[in-house]
């Protein structure tokens, strides 16, 4: 019989109170540092860099900006550069060299309104292709940027004439397994999920999960599409098997009612793509494992391949706060180490144990 201690444990290593609202927190690759992004009560933006030293966070750098910063990613530059791309409330996309204060190394007025979500690919050091960044905004558009082409996006996905502009809450890049292929997934406030094929500049697939889509993430960006997780307002998440696309049924999926409130984020463990964490509006974290079915596809009556969804198992959960945990980021280097931040103006460093045993 297995005891509860055999399961992974979510341990709060330390926490630090902040004097501003923190929207996003990210580990700086190949370091013991993390960055927090947010806004002061006076309406300006802030970026702080902390270093983990002797079990606590030491502030080593702070910078204030005219506009609050909503989101950031290290995904578009190499591990040597480690430049941070950020999206702010003014619709600006900036890329920062964290070693040098002051002006960004790349800056563009990307959107007319707030950039809600940002993701990067190409700088992972493992995949192929261009250093691209995707941004999703309240103005209803999703844009892809190449840092070598400054003034205009390389792709712009926007509603057609007469179509309602929906608030884009989340974007994710994936399917970057060679130099040509790329897919962007976007989630919107009305429950729409759209998958754009950048190679063919076309809408490859769309569905609606009935509730606003808070976060979408591929289990890996740099492989042939495998799985996609989408989280929503009503505490439900959906795992789509992206290997088999049926002409009419699309991708098969399994859904799970996980939290009693909004699931703000989902993050896959970098060292194991079948384990992921969801963060909830009631200040809790849920750790999940996806189990593949015995066969991932079957043939329907028309002799067409249709995907078979697997199942999800809850490994562990923990409540950290009474406020939403709005961001979480795993360390790419140390398995089980993660940083998360919430609307209680606190950043926490967590250790998740026994991940190699599940």
From TrEMBL:
WD repeat spans? 133-155
State the name under which the record lists this protein.
Answer: Dynein axonemal assembly factor 10
Q: Does the keyword Repeat apply?
A: yes
What this protein is reported to do is described as:
Key assembly factor specifically required for the stability of axonemal dynein heavy chains in cytoplasm.
Pfam families in UniProt: WD40
* Keyword entries, A-Z: Apoptosis, Cytoplasm, Repeat, WD repeat
Task: Check the record and name the InterPro entries matching this protein.
Answer: WD40/YVTN_repeat-like_dom_sf, WD40_repeat_CS, WD40_repeat_dom_sf, WD40_rpt
Q: Which SMART domains match?
A: WD40
Q: Report the main location listed first in the record.
A: cytoplasm
Q: Which GO terms describe its cellular component?
A: dynein axonemal particle; spindle pole
